[in-house]
Amino acid sequence: MQTTKSLILLIFLSPIFIYSQQRIAISDTSDNEAHPSAVLELISEDKGFLLPRMMQSQRDAIDNPAESLIIYNSITRCFEIWLDEWHEIWCGPEPELLENPCEGLEGTTYEYEIEYDGYVYKLVQIGGRCWFAENLKYDNGCTSVAWEDGEDVGWCGCYNDDCATYFDEYGYLYQWSAAMDWDRIGDLPPAKSQGICPDGFHVPNGGEGMNQTGVDCDWGDLTHRYLFINSEYQCDDVHNAVGSALTDYNDWNFSSVECDVGNNSAINNNTGFSGLPGGYVEGDKTFTRMGEKGFWWSSSGSVETFHRFLRYNSDKMYLMLTFTSDPLVSYGYSLRCVRTLD
């Protein structure tokens, strides 16, 4: 039986693999041989060779890497080789960043600001983008929408329904359709949809599918293609701490672990993003996680949307896939806006 299986496998692979004196050619056709100097040659006129592509955390999880192992780091955009430790062979160009993405929005209260529906919002420039540095407080009628358990009906409101305590600092929590200003009847809102953001701004794009690090993904570009590879957002010189760089330490629960969001490390809020632990509201209208976590919606242009969250006992910004038909979109999260520049 084993011989039969081997024969079938050989017949199946014969159009692709050509064996010549212990040399192997992998080719689109069956009439090529490996070069005499090579044990393996790849031959094609219209296809390339792909190295394993992985994030840095996946690379670091490789068990006992062999000397000269090569991978492509999708976060740093570098080809890397293992020689007692990982070394960069060649890196792609850094994404082109606008020098002043908040240009024309200079303010009197803050360096950059915008007035929207009676409130003045602080803006901050991070990685070629102009972000809100505060949670949104806009009411498009969503505060008058009656809550329905497990349903995204376009509700918004304050944590614990207590605006006197939480509104000024934390703004509103929004169900997804409220944030996207969507009636859940027509076409899905596009990626980088304005939603309830002011003119010239949009709900941050969360990427499509698992493409979280592309240059067209607002959140991914912020966390992975800018902060993650920039040494000034590292804690203890070697430990990257994106979450800490995005958060103001004071409102978060305390963590004794250095570099965590809830630990007063040297890089807390280096970016000026001022992420807050505003918690969220669950589908049965249970308010939870104030002080522990902060959640923000994203747009995607598809049935998949990725919201982002930070937590006090971690140094990372996390993402979670949510389908727009999923009960999770009935949850209420905070909202930031980012300037539309393309």
Summarize the structure.
By secondary structure, the protein is α+β, with helices and mostly antiparallel strands.
Layout: helices, strands, pairs:
Blueprint: H1 2-13, E1 17-20, E2 23-27, E3 40-43, E4 53-54, H2 56-60, E5 70-73, E6 78-82, E7 86-91, E8 113-116, E9 119-126, E10 129-132, E11 156-157, H3 163-170, E12 173-174, H4 176-180, E13 201-202, H5 218-227, E14 234-235, E15 239-240, H6 242-245, E16 278-281, E17 287-290, E18 293-296, E19 304-311, E20 317-323, E21 338-339
Parallel strand pairs: 2-3, 4-5
Antiparallel strand pairs: 1-2, 5-6, 6-7, 8-9, 9-10, 11-12, 13-21, 14-15, 16-17, 18-19, 19-20
Question: How would you explain this protein's 3D organization?
Answer:
The structure is a single chain. With 342 residues, the chain is an alpha+beta fold. The chain has two domains: 15-91, no CATH class; 113-339, no CATH class. It is built from six helices and 21 strands. The strands form eight sheets. The protein has a four-stranded mixed sheet with strand order 4-5-6-7. A hairpin with a 5-residue loop joins strand 19 and strand 20 (317-323). It is globular and about 80 Å long. The relative contact order is 0.12. Mean pLDDT is 85; it is low at 1-20 and 208-213.
